[in-house]
Amino acid sequence: MSLLIILVCIILLILLISWGKVNPFLALLLISFTAGLLLGIPANKVTASIQKGFGDTLGSIVLIIALGAMLGKLVAESGAAQKISDVLMRLFGPRNIQWALMITGFILGIPLFYGVGFVLLVPLAFSVVYQYRLPAVYICLPMIASLSVTHGFLPPHPSPVALATQFGASIGLTLVYGIIIAIPTVIIAGPIFAKTVKSITATPLETFRPNDLPPNKLPGTANSFLTALLPVFLLVVTSLTYFVTINNSIIKNALSFLSDATIVMLISLIVATFSLGVSMGKSIKEIMSFYGESLKDITLILLIIGAAGALKQVLADSGISKEIAQMMQHLHIAPLILGWLIAAFIRICVGSATVAGLTAAGIIAPLITQAHVNPSLMVLSIGAGSLVCSHVNDSGFWMFKEYFNLSMKETFRSWTLMETLVAIIGLVGVLILDLFV
């Protein structure tokens, strides 16, 4: 019965937005209340559940998205985005720009959290899209596929690390196996699949449209790249301390503080204010007006992401993930496939890749020793399953939709199918690797 309620609520949500033209933020809130009551959450606790989901989701990313939008706006207004796109085009040409962005997304996606990588790299890709009038979804999807794969498969991302710890798997070996599987997965779900969505017409957020300035007014190449990618460099450097033992508590605490994504973004924005703003002849007042405009453009996006988090929390609080896990635990299926299926089913119903992965891990853990399953491969199998079929109960779905300014149908056609391809190809890769290790 619970599964039927979830299915009806998801269909109703899609109809409200696509057919009824209801604002996605309001539609998500209405469905969150409806789903909570129908799934048996006490009426006096539904609101608390929605508030918790809204707050938890925005609490972790709102500052990153806001600061990222400000940085992206300044990069666009200063001409740095124009300079970066010119250099990329000279180096790779229009025919290879997809591959360049995909490789960039893969390399930078290993140390960066998905949300941070999305907020930093997508605006840079938009600068190429706008300046050379290229199809936005077609050009950017391979890079986003790279970010998704590294998020789901590779340590040091939180979910793979948590799964590896729970299964007693080697993090280093999991990373090696993950890269082996990730490379073909990204190529198929990225440039190859992107050819099927080339006809989708998208108009990305206006905030990231670069200024068309004369060459003598553009910042230098080094200044443009170093400033735009400073958050990436800082996060890479600080993430390396994860592998170093530091006994001095003061240094350890300082590095922990500096490695926080919000602090990194704030430092980067301060640097950009001077390197791309003041040093280029712009007044502080003019720079602050850019920042204000950027926040206006992302306000609705933040509300929609928060509302998606509210729906996800309601579904999690209803206990549906445990119900699904118990239902599937008794299926006589190979453990690697069963782990993928449990994670996939929970992901589709609840929307959270982390909840799906960790719930599936709790169910599958006893089978690993009984069935002599390679724990690193189980981490990757569950990680792949937790990415499948991202849709309206996932905040990533809405971030992609709103940044690219797509319809529901176009988002399903591009984002949801790409995520599903990543999940299926990842499972196939795990099963093939299982034959040799």
Short description:
With about 425 residues, this protein is mainly α.
Question: Key features?
Answer:
mainly alpha; 0% strand; Gluconate:H+ symporter; membrane; transmembrane helix
Describe the overall structure.
- The chain is mostly helical.
- It has one domain.
- It has 19 helices and no strands.
- It has helices spanning 2-18, 24-38, 43-78, 80-109, 114-132, 136-153, 158-167, 171-194, 221-228, 230-240, 249-258, 261-277, 284-317, 320-329, 335-350, 353-370, 375-385, 395-404, 408-434.
- The two termini are 41 Å apart.
- The chain crosses the membrane at residues 58-76, 97-130, 136-154, 175-194, 225-245, 257-278, 336-365, 377-400, 412-433.
- It is found in: Cell membrane.
- It comes from Paraflavisolibacter caeni.
